[in-house]
Design the sequence.
């Protein structure tokens, strides 16, 4: 897998379908992780930080609706829900479970891949718009990305360029845990984990300058920006 490849979590208890979907998505350049029941889907979501989730409704443990509810409460992520029947889709749309798109079984793998691409394009367009906005306000934290200024509770902080970029990166996805390896890859373009201490030292500097409570450490994983709502 190339660094920066988009990750997809495929949650499906029918192994032949899961493998076929994974094979197709991998062939299209995605990094794919699999989960086969509700609880392991939630665990895998936390561990792999996917960009999109393909989620079957009927699952052992707890069902896809519960999976959707739990992962969306952690961080917003596009979800392509796979249902057994068209009337089930109607029901779920009516319930507003928080999926972004629905696909009814039996589906063609090609159709599924097309939906995945379409969903990601939509999200990227939305993110792009967000990136054009030069002001980020999260609780008492204010960032002006054009003038590269930061303040907390009205007090300006002087950040180095790398500290600033790291802060903006975390602030784009508040409360989402960002693995140290991914921060390294995206901000420093490192493809191995040997430089994760550089991330740690910049985080330490951000805490010193902006308050220790701003960034949460998730042990063994990475960091998340915590801002009071
Ligand atoms: Ca199923």
Sequence:
């Amino acid at each position: 897998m190339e660094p920066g490849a988009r990750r997809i979590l495929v949650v499906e208890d029918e192994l032949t379908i899961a493998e076929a979907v994974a094979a197709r998505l991998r062939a299209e350049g995605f990094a794919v992780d699999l989960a086969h029941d509700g609880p392991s889907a939630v665990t895998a979501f936390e561990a792999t930080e996917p960009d999109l989730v393909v989620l079957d409704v009927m699952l052992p443990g707890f069902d896809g609706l519960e999976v959707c509810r739990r992962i969306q409460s952690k961080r917003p992520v596009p979800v392509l829900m796979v249902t057994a029947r068209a009337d089930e889709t109607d029901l779920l749309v009516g319930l507003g479970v928080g999926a972004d798109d629905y696909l009814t079984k039996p589906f063609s793998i090609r159709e599924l891949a097309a939906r995945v691409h379409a969903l990601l394009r939509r999200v990227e367009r939305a993110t792009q718009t967000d990136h054009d906005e030069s002001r980020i306000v999260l609780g008492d934290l204010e960032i002006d990305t054009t003038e590269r200024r930061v303040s907390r509770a009205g007090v300006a902080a002087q950040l180095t360029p790398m500290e600033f970029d790291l802060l903006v990166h975390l602030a784009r996805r508040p409360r989402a845990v960002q693995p140290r390896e991914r921060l390294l890859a995206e901000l420093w373009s490192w493809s191995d984990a040997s430089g994760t201490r550089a991330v740690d030292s910049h985080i330490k500097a951000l805490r010193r300058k902006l308050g220790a409570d701003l960034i949460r450490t998730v042990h063994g994983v990475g960091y998340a920006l915590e801002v009071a709502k």
In short: The chain has two domains: 7-126, 131-225. The chain has a mean pLDDT of 86.
